[in-house]
Design a protein that fits this description.
Length: about 110
């Protein structure tokens, strides 16, 4: 069998570009995300609780979205990325900072 392209780097680059440019049906993407999330939430109960504060596409929406993460945050159940987002928000938002302080002082973490 004769190879048309002898440069393996060029072949790899071409194939990589084809994969990057491939479009994925949004419905297929959402189904895959739902399967992954269901497996993760079965393994990590705190992740399931944190998911309730997310919009369908995973965004944290406004102060109420951040405040819904407080219980998982206080229990140490948030991912490192979500902790960073929440802590950054708390630096800028007096209202949420007071709400978290109040919640942790009363022990209301669930």
């Amino acid at each position: 069998m004769r190879r048309k392209e002898k440069d393996p780097g060029a072949v790899l680059d071409r194939i990589t570009n084809e994969i990057r440019e491939e479009t994925i049906d949004p419905a297929v993407e959402q189904q895959a995300a739902a399967r992954v999330w269901s497996l993760l939430s079965a393994k990590i109960p705190a992740a399931a609780a944190a998911a309730e504060s997310l919009s369908p596409d995973g965004r944290i929406e406004g102060c109420s979205g951040f405040q819904e993460l407080f219980a998982s945050y206080l229990q140490g159940g948030l991912s490192q990325a979500r902790c960073l987002l929440l802590e950054d928000h708390l630096q800028a938002c007096v209202r949420c900072r007071k709400a978290l302080r109040s919640r942790s002082a009363t022990g209301a973490d669930g």
